[in-house]
Each structure stands twice: as C-alpha cells, then as structure tokens.
Amino acid sequence: MALRVKVEREDFDLVFSNGWVDGLVQGRRGLWVYVELGTEQEYIKRPSDDPRTEYRLFRGCDVFFAESREQLEALTDNTNAELVNQTVILYC
Fold it and tell me: Which of 39, 44, 52, 57: CA 20 to 30 A from 1?
C-alpha cells in the first residue's frame, strides 16, 4: 500500500527521482514526513482521485516521521529510516 503525502505546489513541481521532499501524511492530522525519494514512475489515476489534484508516484522511498515541521528540520541522522523501500504518492 502506498503512502500518500500532501506537499506544497513549489515542492511538487521541483521534486525528482532520488531527491527529497517533506509534507503531511494523508489522513493523519499533523503527521509530517521527510521522504528520500526513489525512482519516479507513471501514476495511473484511480476513479476516487480528485480531478483537481495532481499526483506523482515514487518507488523505493525511505520515510521519516515527525509530529511537527520543526521536528523534521531537526532530523540530522537519516541513517535509520522508519519505513524503507516504500511507495509514495505525492499530491498537491
């Protein structure tokens, strides 16, 4: 199952394979993530997707969780991802 992460428009437009991004986990109020992106692949829309929303799919991502944006900024030791080799869907 893929982890859906809401990101800001500027970040959405600038991310690339093997880059990184931070955002909010869908359905988990106030749960921030820092994602080391894997390889981007084509996103195939689902019938339940909002037609006004854009999506991008990345496989092989490492994900780090935090309860606030400040905690994300304090992450300095990214050697132990909380989730490794995950599929992540970015949206904005």
Answer: 52
